[in-house]
Amino acid sequence: MYSLELRGATKRYPGGGAEPVVALDDVDFAVEPGEFVAVVGPSGSGKSTLLNVLGLLDDPTEGQRLLDGTDVTSLSVAQRTAARKESIGFVFQDFHLLPTLTAVENVALPTAFDPGDASDRAADLLSRFGLGDRLGHEPAELSGGQKQRVAIARSLINEPAVLLADEPTGNLDTETGESILAEFERVKEEGVAVVAVTHDPLVEGFADRVVELTDGVLVGGVPDGGERADEPRPGPETATAGDR
Ligand SMILES: Nc1ncnc2c1ncn2[C@@H]1O[C@H](COP(=O)(O)OP(=O)(O)OP(=O)(O)O)[C@@H](O)[C@H]1O
Ligand SMILES: [Mg+2]
């Protein structure tokens, strides 16, 4: 079973009077547990849109989305929040760290409403990313690459089944990028599905599969042998979670 899957997913943004923008065009995508997929493509080709739709941050206009085999095409806000917290780690291109929290508090933030104190685990994650001596620093006191590593540590605090990362090595020197990728490799070996948008050949080198987006059209989105050419594709009217 796939960790995460899109079937015939289209994402259209309203064009503000002009033609709508087709950011994803009939995309089939799947990632298996323990697989590392790199998503490449030119600026504006739909990479962040793909990641947002995969990460339940945005819904497809048409098509179907499955998380661990369960249809999660359209969920209520509460269901979506629960599913994301349970299963998905997300590293944003611009980090989304809270400026008034320290590094360790930012990493522990996703567990804020859980019983117990996650600061030891947060500190441990930060140490693994070479930030053991920056636990009490606020984002403004950290370099771009250090903030990025805090964001990656935070994405792992809930031990997600799927890790989605937008340009995870974008601000990092080669050595730091390699240590992050080694950490992704370790996470992957624990069975986590990793999907990373990248322009970095280093990331492509680490990936099990590289998929390419051009103007919203995805090539190589489904693992070999996993094509569903014989299956009818659900139309927009059938592709809702309520159909289960
Ligand atoms: N909220 C939005 N409303 C309208 N159009 C949008 C919106 N978000 C993205 N787009 C458009 O959708 C297309 C895909 O955008 P997206 O951000 O997914 O590209 P990208 O591949 O991530 O680009 P980059 O490499 O520059 O980050 C672009 O044409 C963009 O202008
Ligand atoms: Mg983008």
Account of the 3D structure:
This protein is of the alpha/beta class and 244 residues long. It contains seven helices and ten strands. It has a single domain, classed as Rossmann fold (3-Layer(aba) Sandwich), CATH 3.40.50. The chain has helices at residues 47-54, 77-87, 103-108, 119-128, 144-156, 174-189, 201-206; strands at 4-15, 18-31, 36-40, 62-67, 70-71, 88-91, 162-166, 193-197, 209-214, 217-219. A six-stranded mixed β-sheet has the order 6-7-8-3-9-10, sandwiched between helices. The chain has a four-stranded antiparallel β-sheet with strand order 2-1-4-5, with helices on one face. Strand 4 and strand 5 form a beta hairpin. The radius of gyration is 18 Å and the shape is globular. The structure holds adenosine-5'-triphosphate and magnesium ion. Magnesium ion (MG) is lined by residues 47-48.
Q: Please report the distance between the alpha carbons of the first and last residues.
A: 18 Å
The CATH architecture category equals: 3-Layer(aba) Sandwich
C-alpha Rg (nearest Å): 18 Å
Q: What name is given to the CATH topology? A: Rossmann fold
CATH class: Alpha Beta
Low confidence ranges? 235-244
What is the N-to-C succession of helices and strands?
EEEHEEHEHHHEHEHEE
The number of helical runs is 7
